[in-house]
TrEMBL record:
Residues 28-242 form the Thioesterase domain. One of its GO terms (molecular function) is hydrolase activity. This is Alpha/beta fold hydrolase. InterPro entries: AB_hydrolase_fold (IPR029058), TEII (IPR012223), Thioesterase (IPR001031). It comes from the Bacteria. Keywords: Hydrolase. Belongs to the thioesterase family.
Amino acid sequence: MAVTTGGKTEVPDLWISRFGPSGGARTRLVCFPHAGGSSSFFFPLARALAPDVEVVAVQYPGRQNRRSEPLLTRITDLVDGVLPELDRAGDLPWALFGHSMGAVVAFEAARRAARPPLRLFASGRRAPSRIRDEDVHTRDDAGLIAELRRLGGTDPRVFDEPELLAGLLPAFRADYRAIETYRPDPGAAVGCPVTVLIGVEDPQVTEDEARSWRHHTTDRTDLHVFPGGHFYLADHQRRVTALIAAGLGDLSAKE
């Protein structure tokens, strides 16, 4: 909804969700959701890192407050949409956190952003150059649902609500198409440190695939392996929060 202030109409930024005032924050962490996910996934992280770190989250089209907008099916289109908002938000040093598909969107955004980020946190995703032959986006609804059950992260009650599930599946399918058809540019790399986080039982990424992120930065990488599967971070919020805070604090101390 547009807001009129002093005779001037201001259009809210639909790409970025903010969870509270940023007063006192020293760093901004921009979070990118997984396939089918939404910005609200990162509310617990925002609450845990406040007030030193302002957490904002990207809201992809076609879900929650953007439900009426067309879905995007290419990583480049998602980056094209959010990048102007990231470039305008230049009042704080910033870093990126992306989970699963979000790690790739964050990686491409970091590559193209006008200001280099402090760090990229790549969670639950193999390195961009480690391509698997995947076809989830071409499966029928039953096949897509089976994949969602396999990975976890979706409230099991959703599968018992046919109308609700039918409304969510198009976003899942569009995101799976985006990530499964993504191919990085040769030699694609960021110029900041990359911290990689994975669950040891995640079927989407092995430790070897995670270590290959070192080929996608001109800086250093570090890998952290947690118990659990693809959504390990839901069970280890305190450890993940501490890791992010320490990573941002180390960089701030060097500035």
